[in-house]
């Protein structure tokens, strides 16, 4: 397995995205037990992923009061899955005390608030921690290209809120709200239209999204807190 001090050639990549690769992610075992930390760079290298390195992540699905889902298109500057459409916000809790807290999924919820502001300019007061509904976890693996990829236990967080956006163009290329019918059409025509979708979003769409969407006002009935769904 590669060591933390592995040299990677970042020539041609965006300077800010390279800087973010030094953030420290939370390493976990197959049961989502925290076992250490490594840089975002290290845990996203396919050589390490192929050796079994696994980290914790989250995916936020934000709906407005019309029950429309906010989608984002990842910026071209992103190192993994550039230009792909995905759910509202996808990232990682960091290996810091406030985001390592597991009780009530508080760590991933704090990370979600941090990244919603960083990527989309959503102010924390518009997405308070107690408004997030944790639903379940998925375990998946997917290459982005020959060098980079994802291998994550991904916490799924839903929130319903009307928010103000101030998009960070280094993170997000475009955003749009979609109805359930519009989302289905995007998925059904993605190959025909050449629309690129992130692999985790496609897995969530295929396995869970619409039944959860139908229960937006009664999400507590959808919670499966103990299961880690192995979508490998």
UniProtKB/TrEMBL annotation:
The molecule here is called Isopentenyl-diphosphate delta-isomerase idi1
Question: Which E.C. number(s) belong to this protein?
Answer: 5.3.3.2
Q: What class of enzyme is it?
A: isomerase
Q: Which domain of life is it from?
A: Eukaryota
Keyword terms: Isomerase
- Is Isomerase among this UniProt entry's keywords? yes
């Amino acid at each position: 397995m590669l060591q933390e001090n592995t040299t990677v050639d970042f020539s041609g990549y965006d300077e800010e995205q390279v800087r973010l690769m030094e953030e420290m992610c939370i390493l976990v075992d197959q049961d989502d037990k925290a076992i250490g930390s490594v840089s975002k760079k290290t845990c996203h290298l396919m050589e390490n992923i192929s050796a079994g390195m696994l980290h914790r992540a989250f995916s936020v699905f934000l709906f407005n009061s019309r029950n429309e889902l906010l989608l984002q298109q990842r910026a071209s500057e992103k190192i993994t899955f550039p230009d792909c459409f995905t759910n509202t916000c996808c990232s990682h809790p960091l290996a810091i005390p406030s985001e390592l807290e597991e009780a009530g999924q508080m760590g991933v919820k704090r990370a979600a608030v941090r990244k919603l502001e960083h990527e989309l300019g959503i102010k924390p007061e518009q997405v308070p921690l107690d408004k997030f509904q944790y639903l379940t976890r998925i375990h998946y693996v997917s290459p982005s290209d020959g060098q980079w990829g994802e291998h994550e236990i991904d916490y799924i967080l839903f929130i319903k809120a009307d928010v103000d956006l101030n998009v960070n163009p280094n993170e997000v290329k475009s955003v749009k709200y979609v109805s359930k019918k519009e989302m289905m059409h995007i998925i059904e025509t993605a190959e025909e239209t050449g629309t690129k979708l992130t692999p985790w979003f496609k897995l969530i769409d295929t396995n869970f999204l619409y039944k959860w969407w139908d229960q937006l006002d009664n999400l507590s009935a959808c919670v499966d807190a103990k299961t880690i769904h192995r979508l490998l």
